[in-house]
């Protein structure tokens, strides 16, 4: 599955200071592509992209409070948060409000 | 997954199952934390800007003809503030002369990058920019200070110097008002911290939308009731140019437990942020309680409740090679408190690590 992931608000510092990542996410073993959700994606991101201080991004199995998530420019609170279904070519943006400026 | 469930998941994801709560025409893109309304991008811009306008009008923050400086760090809050204030000034004919005021703390690799952002904002928004540096005002950069004292307590110097530097910069610009981008989340956080510190003088001030009316230059917080989530979403949708990274000398400042607590509360019940601000506003201090009296510093003339202002005390310590002067618990107006109240280590540490930026009201 081809996705574009964007990290902002300081989160890019956790990912080699790269703001935009075009990634190819393998579906979990045997999973139907319609079952790929934000929950799976967060787990994948934590494993594959976060290089330092994962606690700034994750708390438990979801993003840390203060991190905003947009899926195709839409607040994930409207689409089911962790249960949001992710499809090929989706754009997912993570923005932290925790870093000062 | 049945096709029915699949369709529901798709429509849920696309937000097509309902329309914007306000216009009932377009796809919603945002759930507002303070109202839980699901609204579209265009309505979001409109309500965001209109609410800030109402805060400005109802609190009479400005008068026509005033010169107003916007404290500009290059971060999201001040960038959105500069953009929105320019828009509202035009749209509603406030009649203000607006300026950007930046403080250069002299932190290599951090402030120089964020100041580049403010310089771009100066061009993008057409607002004249004044930069005031610690080096010019105090003879010391934060790089110098950290070399002298290390990372512990350096935020105390920076917070004290920055607050005064903003006033000095505002005086240079000859402005009538200074506005800062403190948002609802910042203020709720400060209410909690001042309660935990038992700082009743600050507690009565930290929820005021305008402070310092008896000081050199009044400060206003037009974003007092604006949620940080909305500021970030507004900046994102408008593609505003801002800089975000934490200060390299306080890498743990963002871990302050009050900030984390506020974010946890917001996730559970977003309205809690406004409720905490309301609680802060409603605190009543007994009239018999002695409050520090404001005077002026003997040395530099800045407002101070002591003979010397905090900045001069810290500066004297630096210049004498005794940087610990002025660090540590204040003894009160008369300096006659003998008791050293013990605080839990983690609380004191967390409070200390947050001694910078938005805490310094």
UniProtKB/TrEMBL annotation, chain B:
Its main location: cytoplasm. GO terms for molecular function: nucleotidyltransferase activity; tRNA binding. GO terms for biological process: protein urmylation; tRNA wobble position uridine thiolation. It comes from the Eukaryota. Its EC number is 2.7.7.-. Residues 68-252 form the tRNA(Ile)-lysidine/2-thiocytidine synthase N-terminal domain. One of its GO terms (cellular component) is cytosolic tRNA wobble base thiouridylase complex. Keywords: Cytoplasm, RNA-binding, Transferase, tRNA processing, tRNA-binding. Pathway: tRNA modification; 5-methoxycarbonylmethyl-2-thiouridine-tRNA biosynthesis. It is an enzyme of class 2 (transferase). Residues 295-325 form the Cytoplasmic tRNA 2-thiolation protein 1 C-terminal domain. Pfam families: ATP_bind_3, zn-ribbon_14. It is found in: Cytoplasm. Belongs to the TtcA family. CTU1/NCS6/ATPBD3 subfamily. Plays a central role in 2-thiolation of mcm(5)S(2)U at tRNA wobble positions of tRNA(Lys), tRNA(Glu) and tRNA(Gln). Directly binds tRNAs and probably acts by catalyzing adenylation of tRNAs, an intermediate required for 2-thiolation. It is unclear whether it acts as a sulfurtransferase that transfers sulfur from thiocarboxylated URM1 onto the uridine of tRNAs at wobble position. NCBIfam families: TIGR00269 family protein. HAMAP family: CTU1. This is Cytoplasmic tRNA 2-thiolation protein 1. It comes from Arabidopsis thaliana x Arabidopsis arenosa.
């Amino acid at each position: 599955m081809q996705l574009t992931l964007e990290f902002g608000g300081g989160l890019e510092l956790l990912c080699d200071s790269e703001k935009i990542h075009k990634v190819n996410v393998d579906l979990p073993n045997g999973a139907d592509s319609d079952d790929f959700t934000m929950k799976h994606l967060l787990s994948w991101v934590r494993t594959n992209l976060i290089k330092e201080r994962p606690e700034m991004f994750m708390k438990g199995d979801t993003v840390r409070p203060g991190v905003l998530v947009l899926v195709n420019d839409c607040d994930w609170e409207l689409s089911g948060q962790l249960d949001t279904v992710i499809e090929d070519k989706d754009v997912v943006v993570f923005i932290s409000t925790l870093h000062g400026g | 997954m049945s096709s029915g469930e699949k369709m529901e998941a798709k429509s849920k994801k696309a937000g097509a199952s309902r329309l914007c709560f306000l216009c009932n025409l377009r796809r919603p893109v945002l759930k507002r934390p303070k109202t839980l309304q699901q609204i579209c991008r265009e309505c979001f811009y409109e309500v965001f800007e209109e609410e800030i306008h109402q805060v400005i009008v109802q609190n009479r923050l400005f008068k026509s003809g005033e010169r107003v400086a916007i404290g500009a760090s290059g971060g999201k809050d001040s960038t959105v503030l500069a953009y929105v204030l320019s828009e509202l000034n035009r749209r509603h004919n406030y009649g203000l002369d607006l300026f950007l005021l930046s403080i250069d703390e002299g932190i290599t690799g951090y402030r120089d990058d964020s100041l580049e952002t403010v310089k771009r904002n100066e061009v993008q928004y057409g607002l004249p920019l004044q930069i005031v540096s610690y080096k010019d005002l105090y003879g010391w950069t934060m790089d110098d200070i950290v070399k002298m004292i290390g990372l512990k307590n350096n935020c105390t110097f920076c917070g004290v110097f920055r607050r005064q530097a903003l006033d000095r910069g505002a005086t240079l610009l000859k402005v009538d008002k200074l506005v800062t981008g403190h948002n609802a989340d910042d203020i709720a956080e400060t209410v909690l911290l001042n309660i935990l510190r038992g700082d009743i003088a600050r507690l009565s001030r930290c929820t005021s939308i305008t402070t310092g009316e008896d000081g050199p230059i009044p400060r206003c917080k037009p974003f007092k009731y604006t949620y940080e989530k909305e500021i970030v979403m507004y900046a994102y949708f408008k593609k505003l140019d801002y800089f975000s990274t934490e200060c390299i000398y306080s890498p743990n400042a963002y871990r302050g437990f009050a900030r984390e607590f506020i974010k946890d509360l917001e996730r559970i019940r977003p309205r809690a942020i406004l409720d905490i601000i309301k609680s802060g506003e409603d605190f009543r201090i007994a009239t018999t309680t002695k409050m520090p009296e404001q005077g002026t510093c003997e040395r530099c003339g800045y407002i101070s409740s002591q003979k010397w202002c905090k900045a001069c005390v810290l500066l004297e310590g630096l210049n004498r090679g005794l940087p610990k002067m002025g660090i540590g618990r204040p003894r009160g107006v008369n300096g006659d408190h003998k008791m050293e109240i013990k605080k839990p280590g983690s609380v004191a540490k967390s409070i200390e690590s947050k001694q910078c930026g938005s805490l310094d009201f």
